[in-house]
Design a protein that fits this description.
Strands 1, 2, 3, 4, 5, 6 and 9 form a 7-stranded mixed beta sheet that branches. Strands 7-8 form a two-stranded antiparallel ribbon. Helix 4 links the parallel strand 5 and strand 6. By secondary structure, it is an alpha/beta fold. Helix content is about 40%, strand content about 25%. It has 8 helices and 9 strands. Helix 2 packs parallel to helix 3.
């Protein structure tokens, strides 16, 4: 099997590809559509399956031939625990990791974007910050409210630890009632995402790769 055929199959099957360059060998993975958790979504929904991403990340961490990781994001969000699991794996890697938000990095896509060592957002991309949501039957008792609060704190704490935004600013963006019709939260355009410290820089794939090669060189 040729190298080009292997690359094509890797992209088609896993949305992942390895590139070779004199500056370093880069593995690129994609987090697109909806992050799928324990519930299987229908065939018409574009998904990223955490059971595919987690083993890939472990393999990248252990592969001596891979020098750095590029994470491309265009996600509407999805399962909170699956998204946090992927984000924790990314943030815990010893190899340099750069993320690039293309199109959108919404909801649980926010922790995924900031989990890297350095984050970029394309000038045309947006990010949505909003409180935790849950669908299905909810038992209306005080314990449920406290559980929601603790889950929200898990997300907030992760974002604060892995970006430059303050706790107060992130909470304010999350609880804004004037930005989204019939909803709570904030839609951040690229310049505002950088201005508030959520994302490190605006840029494209060239900028992201150059930053990754710079980090590998160090």
């Amino acid at each position: 099997m040729s190298e080009n055929t292997e690359k094509r199959e890797e992209i088609e099957d896993m949305g992942s590809v390895k590139t070779h360059n004199p500056h370093g060998n880069i593995q690129c993975i994609t987090i697109i559509g909806q992050v799928e958790g324990h519930q299987i979504l229908d065939d018409r929904t574009k998904t990223t399956k955490y059971e595919h991403i987690l083993p890939q990340l472990a393999a990248i961490e252990e592969d001596a031939d891979i020098d750095g990781l590029l994470v491309l994001l265009n996600t509407c969000g999805g399962d909170v625990e699956a998204g946090l699991a992927i984000a924790e794996m990314i943030s815990g890697m010893s190899k340099p990791v750069v993320s690039l938000v293309l199109g959108g990095g919404h909801s649980i896509g926010v922790p995924l974007a900031v989990a890297s060592d350095y984050s970029f957002i394309a000038p045309s991309a947006t990010m949505t910050v909003h409180p935790l949501r849950m669908t299905g039957m909810v038992i209306g008792v005080m314990q449920t409210f406290r559980y929601f609060e603790r889950m929200q704190e898990r997300i907030t704490d992760f974002v604060i630890r892995n970006s430059k935004i303050s706790y107060e600013d992130f909470r304010r963006l999350m609880l804004t009632t004037e930005d989204i019709a019939n909803d709570v939260g904030t839609i951040l355009f690229a310049d505002k995402a950088v201005e508030c410290g959520l994302i490190d820089s605006m840029g494209g794939v060239h900028d992201a790769l150059n930053k990754l090669y710079e980090m590998i060189g160090k």
